[in-house]
Amino acid sequence: MKCIFFFLVIGVLIPFSAISQEPIENGAYSEFYSNGVLKISGFYRNNKKHGQWKSFYETGELERVYGYSQGELKDARMSFYKSGAVKSKRFKKNEILLYQEFYETGSLFFEKEVCDGYAREYYKSGVLKSEGNYIEQELNGIWRSYFDTGEIEWEIAYLNGYKHGVYRQFFRNGNLRLEGVNSEDKQNGIEKRFYETGYLHWEGHFLNDEFHGVWKEYDTSGKQINLLKYKKGRIRNTDLVTLEKVNQPNGAIETVPVYPGCEKNLGFKNRRACFSSKISKYILGQFNSKLLKNSSLTKGSEQRVIVFFEVSEVGNVTNVKVKSNSRLLVSET
To answer: Residue 326's domain spans which residues?
Structure first.
């Protein structure tokens, strides 16, 4: 699983005079790494970014190409691997804005319509790996994933970016492996599990993502051979047979770390908004007000601080970067 990348834009109201920023002049602009290698090149017109811009790796290779029109970022843009192979691109096709990512070998890895529409992921072989549909940038409808040989493996229903409705898993031979129901991102209700030959193997209930109530096991003739009793995830009888929960894969969605207090916010947009709000309040609460009062920042002015960071799948925060017109705010953040 990839790390999740975030940026927060925090407005800091300074209750106290000031370092005015020099206006950026028209013409060519260049920025360099500490080793002297070109980092960014572009052009300004009327103090706004304009025309083609490029960014480079610290070792000199081209990393990204993008453009502006009087300060507005254009839709078309591309990124590259250090080898020079295309890594991603964003472009219009038949008036539809598309985004694509590629394996370094050149084969298509991921493709989606930038606004509403489909999203598809591919194996290196070119075989379709998963597909789904977006409405207002949230995954909706049936999301499907496939084995590397093309057969369907999972079907999971989504509503506004979270799992809601029927889920099914299949064997490679096409027979149903299991079937159940999600409700607001949690398993609830009856789940059935099957033998590869198609006969019912297990049947029981989930309550809020946990085994609950009676679970029955059958042999291929339909005879009951085991009965397990659960209460909120804990087994009540001491049979040697135990059940393992089958983890459903996530669809082609971005997931957000759940900040304490945001658990009931379902869907990517809602959880991202809650996460950003909570983190912003936390960061603002850590500012040293005495240090700011003794600074030369303008009284009553509002300063912008942009914080970039990544959260790993185990919750570790890494690659923290801070940008602001004020060096004081950068150091304090």
So the answer is: 1-19+258-333
CA 46 – CA 116 distance, rounded (Å): 34
Other residues' Cβ atoms within 10 Å of the Cβ of residue 285 = 7
What pLDDT score was predicted for residue 6? 43
Asked whether the predicted pLDDT for residue 243 surpasses 60, the reply is yes
Q: Total domain count for the chain?
A: 1
Nearest-angstrom CA–CA distance, 4 and 163: 20
> Which whole-number Å values give the CA distances from 304 to 13, 72, 325, in the listed order?
9, 19, 7
List helix spans (H) across the chain.
268-285, 289-293, 327-332
The token duo for 252 is 């082609």
Q: Report yes or no on 244 lying in a domain.
A: no
Token pair for 114? 């930038």
Amino acid at 166: V
DSSP letter, residue 127: -
As a whole number, mean pLDDT of residues 37-53 equals 94
Going by C-alpha positions, the residue among 55, 2, 7 that lies closest to residue 279 is 7
pTM here is 0.75
Query: For residue 302, what pLDDT band results from cuts at 50, 70 and 90?
Result: low
Q: Please give the pLDDT value at position 327.
A: 67
In sign, the C-alpha dihedral spanning 112, 88, 317, 279 is negative
Q: Are 178 and 168 in contact (CB under 8 A)?
A: yes
Does residue 51 carry a pLDDT above 80?
yes
In a domain, 289, yes or no: yes
> Which tokens belong to 223?
């005879």
Instruction: Mark 222-245 as b/e (b = at least 16 C-beta within 10 Å).
Output: eeeeeebebeeeeeeeeeeeebee
Asked whether residue 38 is assigned to any structural domain, the reply reads: no
Q: Is residue 58 part of a domain?
A: no
149-176 pLDDT, tens per residue?
Answer: 999 999 999 999 899 999 999 999 999 9
pLDDT digits (tens, 9 = 90+) for 12-22: 343 333 333 34
Averaged pLDDT, 277-303: 64
